[in-house]
C-alpha cells in the first residue's frame, strides 16, 4: 500500500511541476535552472540535498508568491532527478495581524502548488511571538501577542501614536522577534532565500544596525549578516519596548550564529524575470496590486491597518455630538467592514476598542497634557475625577475606582502609566524609540510629530 501511495504522489507532484513549467515564460524557466544550481551548490552537492533545509518568508505580495512558486518548481525538479530533494519551510508573515482574505489567498496558492500534504514542506505562520501551523482561520490567543501588545501600547503612549509610526518601523522589531524564535527550531534552516532587492536589503541592514547602535548593543550580530543573529539582536530591542521604560530585555541564552550561521541566497539577477507575464498569477489565483510590489519591505505588514487607524482617530478626535460616522470618504457603506477589521487588530493584541481609542489620544504623556481633552471627547463623565486621576498617575493616594478606571481604559498597569506620565526613560531607550517613530513600515522618513512629545528629551531616571 505504501508503494502504491508513493507512486501516486510521485505522479501528482510530476503533474504539479508540469503545470508550473507550463505557466512560466522561457526566461523564468532559465532562471529556475540557475536557482536549482545555486541550491545544490549551497547544499554542498547532490549527495547532501536530502538534508538541506530552506526557509522563506511569505509576505502578502506578488513577489513572495512567485518566489514560492519558483522554489516549489526547484524542489520538484530536483526530486524528479534524484530520490530526495531539499526541505522547504514557509513562514507566512502579515503584521500586525493577517486578515482572513489574505490567509485565504495564501491557502489558494498553497493548494495550487500542492504544499499542504507534502512531508517535505512545512507551512507555518507567525501569530504574535509564536510560530504555529498555517491555518486560514487564525486562533485568537491574546497571550501570543502579550509582548507585542505591551510594546505597541508603551510606544504609542510614550512616544508617538500616529498610525504610520505605531505600525511603522516598530513592526520590523516585532517581525524580527517572531522570526528569531522561528529560526531557533530544533532543526534549524541552512539557508534563507529572499527576493527582496539589494537596495532594500541594504536599507534594512542600515536601519537595523543604526537601531542596535542607538542602544549600545554590541555583539556578533553587528559583525556579519547572519539573519538569525541579527534577528536575535533586534528581538532584544523589541523586548525592551514592552518592558518598563528604560529597562532592557535579558540577553538571549543562545547565540543563533554560534555554530552555523544562517546563509542568505539573494536572487538579484533573477528578479527581472520573476515578473515576466501574468501566467503564474493565473495558476496561483493571486490578486495582488502592482503597488504592493514597489515596496518589498512592506510586504510583511497589513498596509490597510494604518488607514483604518487614521479613520478611527479622525472619527474620535472631536466632540461626541459632532463626530461623523466611521467611514472613509468615497466609500459609502464600507464602514462596518473597516470597523470590524480594526476590532480584529485589537482582538489579536488583546485590547478592546476603548483601549485602542485611548492609545490614539495618548492622554497620559507629558504629565497628562491631553488628559482633560481626552476625557472631554471620550469620557465626559470622568471630568469630575480629573484631580484624582492626576494624583493616581503621580503615585499619590486616590480611590481604588480611579486606579481601576485608568488600568481598564488604557490596558496598561498603573506602574507603566506612572512611568509614561513622568516620562521616565533612559537616554538610549529614548533615542531608539524616537528613531523608530521617524520611519514608516517602508523605512521612509516621516515628518516630525506635531504633538511636540519628542521635542524635548526627558532625563533618565
Please describe what this structure looks like.
- By secondary structure, the chain is of the alpha/beta class.
- It has 2 domains: 2-298, no CATH class; 304-317 and 334-422, no CATH class.
- Helices cover 51% and strands 7% of the residues.
- The protein is built from 21 helices and 6 strands.
- It has helices at 2-22, 26-43, 62-81, 100-112, 146-158, 163-166, 170-182, 198-214, 227-241, 271-274, 279-284, 290-293, 304-316, 335-349, 353-361, 365-368, 371-378, 386-393, 400-410, 414-422, 427-437, and strands at residues 53-58, 87-92, 121-127, 130-133, 191-194, 263-266.
- Strands 4-3-2-1-5-6 form a 6-stranded mixed beta sheet.
- Strand 1 (53-58), helix 3 and strand 2 (87-92) form a beta-alpha-beta unit.
- Helix 5 (146-158) crosses helix 9.
- The longest helix has 21 residues, at 2-22.
- The chain is elongated.
- The model is unreliable at 248-257, 321-339 and 454-461 (pLDDT under 50).
Which keywords apply here?
alpha/beta; elongated; 461 residues; 2 domains; six-stranded mixed beta sheet
Q: What is the average per-residue confidence, as pLDDT, rounded to a whole number?
A: 84
Please give the count of helices.
21
| Distance between the amino and carboxyl termini | 70 Å
User: How many structural domains in the coordinates?
Assistant: 2
Strand order of the largest sheet: 4-3-2-1-5-6
Strand content: 5-15%
Shape: elongated
Biggest beta-sheet profile: 6 strands, mixed
Helical/strand content category: alpha/beta
Order of SSEs: HHEHEHEEHHHEHHEHHHHHHHHHHHH
**C-alpha Rg (nearest Å):** 24 Å
Portion of residues in helices? Answer: 40-55%
Q: Provide the low-confidence segments as ranges.
A: 248-257, 321-339, 454-461
Number of extended strands? 6
Oligomeric form of this entry?
single chain
Amino acid at each position: 500500500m505504501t508503494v502504491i501511495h508513493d507512486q501516486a504522489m510521485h505522479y501528482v507532484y510530476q503533474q504539479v511541476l508540469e503545470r508550473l513549467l507550463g505557466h512560466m515564460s522561457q526566461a523564468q524557466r532559465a532562471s529556475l535552472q540557475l536557482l536549482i544550481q545555486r541550491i545544490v551548490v549551497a547544499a554542498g552537492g547532490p549527495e547532501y540535498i536530502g538534508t538541506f533545509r530552506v526557509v522563506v518568508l511569505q509576505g502578502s505580495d506578488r513577489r513572495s508568491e512567485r518566489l514560492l512558486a519558483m522554489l516549489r518548481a526547484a524542489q520538484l525538479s530536483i526530486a524528479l532527478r534524484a530520490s530526495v530533494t531539499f526541505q522547504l519551510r514557509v513562514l507566512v508573515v502579515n503584521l500586525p495581524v493577517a486578515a482572513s482574505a489574505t490567509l485565504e489567498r495564501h491557502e489558494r496558492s498553497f493548494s495550487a502548488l500542492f504544499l499542504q500534504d507534502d512531508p517535505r514542506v512545512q507551512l507555518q505562520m507567525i501569530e504574535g511571538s509564536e510560530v504555529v501551523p498555517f491555518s486560514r482561520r487564525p486562533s485568537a490567543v491574546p497571550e501570543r501577542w502579550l509582548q507585542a501588545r505591551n510594546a505597541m501600547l508603551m510606544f504609542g503612549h510614550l512616544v508617538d501614536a500616529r498610525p504610520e509610526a505605531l505600525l511603522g518601523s516598530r513592526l520590523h522589531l516585532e517581525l524580527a522577534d517572531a522570526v528569531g524564535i522561528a529560526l531557533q527550531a530544533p532543526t534549524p534552516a541552512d539557508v534563507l532565500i529572499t527576493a527582496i532587492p539589494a537596495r532594500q536589503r541594504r536599507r534594512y541592514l542600515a536601519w537595523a544596525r543604526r537601531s542596535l547602535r542607538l542602544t549600545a548593543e554590541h555583539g556578533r550580530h553587528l559583525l556579519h549578516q547572519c539573519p538569525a543573529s541579527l534577528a536575535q539582536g533586534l528581538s532584544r530591542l523589541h523586548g525592551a519596548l514592552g518592558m518598563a521604560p528604560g529597562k532592557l530585555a535579558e540577553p538571549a541564552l543562545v547565540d543563533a550564529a554560534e555554530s552555523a550561521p544562517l546563509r542568505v541566497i539573494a536572487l538579484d539577477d533573477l528578479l527581472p524575470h520573476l515578473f515576466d507575464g501574468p501566467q503564474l498569477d493565473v495558476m496561483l489565483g493571486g490578486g495582488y496590486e502592482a503597488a504592493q510590489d514597489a515596496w518589498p519591505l512592506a510586504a510583511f505588514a497589513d498596509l490597510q491597518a494604518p488607514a483604518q487607524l487614521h479613520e478611527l482617530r479622525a472619527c474620535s478626535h472631536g466632540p461626541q455630538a459632532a463626530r461623523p460616522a466611521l467611514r472613509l470618504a468615497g466609500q459609502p457603506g464600507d464602514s462596518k467592514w473597516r470597523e470590524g477589521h480594526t476590532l480584529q487588530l485589537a482582538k489579536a493584541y488583546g485590547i478592546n476598542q476603548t483601549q485602542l481609542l485611548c492609545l490614539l489620544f495618548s492622554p497620559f504623556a507629558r504629565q497628562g497634557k491631553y488628559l482633560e481633552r481626552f476625557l472631554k471627547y471620550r469620557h465626559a463623565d470622568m471630568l469630575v475625577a480629573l484631580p484624582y486621576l492626576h494624583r493616581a498617575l503621580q503615585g499619590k493616594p486616590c480611590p481604588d475606582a480611579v486606579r481601576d478606571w485608568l488600568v481598564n481604559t488604557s490596558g496598561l498597569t498603573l506602574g507603566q502609566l506612572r512611568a509614561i506620565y513622568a516620562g521616565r526613560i533612559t537616554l538610549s531607550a529614548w533615542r531608539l524609540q524616537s528613531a523608530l517613530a521617524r520611519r514608516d513600515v517602508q523605512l521612509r522618513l516621516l515628518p516630525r510629530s506635531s504633538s511636540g512629545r519628542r521635542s524635548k528629551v526627558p532625563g533618565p531616571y
